[in-house]
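Our platform keeps sequence and structure together, in a single record for each protein. Such a record has a labelled line for the sequence and another for the backbone structure tokens. This encoding replaces a full spatial description with a residue-level series of whole-number codes. Below, we set out a record of this kind in full and without editing:
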Amino acid sequence: MTVNQSNHSGMHQSEPEQGGADLENTLKERDFPNNEENFVDQITAVTEEKIQEKTIYAGFWLRFWAYLIDLVVVMSLDSLLIKPIFRAFNISQYDLAVFSPITIGSAVVFYLYFVLMTKFLGQTLGKMVLGLKVVSLKEGSLSWGTVIFRELIGRFIVRTLLYGISYILVGIFPKKQGLHDLFADTSVVLEKKR
């Protein structure tokens, strides 16, 4: 049985009379709860499962090349921002001590680049070029705490205390996480838009 309804253009559309009953039967068959909050929770859980199934985690080599691109960007920023300031104030640019002014300035540029790019865009320029994105495994979007823990604390530990060896973990863990990802419950995935 159909009921004809007309829209503003004068054309007729037909809809089944029992459309609402069919939807209700489908919901009963799927054993969805009647209360709206539980229904939304169950739909959200199913959606998250489907997203997890389709997520492709970025492996070691993609992340390695993205990191090399980022290092080129950071060195360029360092040459454009830090070194001219040191030249202007006649401060040595060749001091290799750990806490020399040039080392501290370069570290600030390095960490600000990774923190700000990851927080506001979810990816650095190197990750953009290769179609990668940092995602939180617990939260919807990356919070400041997660980004700072991943990019500042996690990277510092990995770079200075473990000399980058922990990046090899990316090839071992199922979600392709480095040690800094494990600290912050994040991972790097391939973007879906590509």
Summary: The radius of gyration is 26 Å. Confidence is low (pLDDT under 50) at residues 1-19. The longest strand covers residues 2-6. Residues 15 and 74 are 60 Å apart (CA to CA).
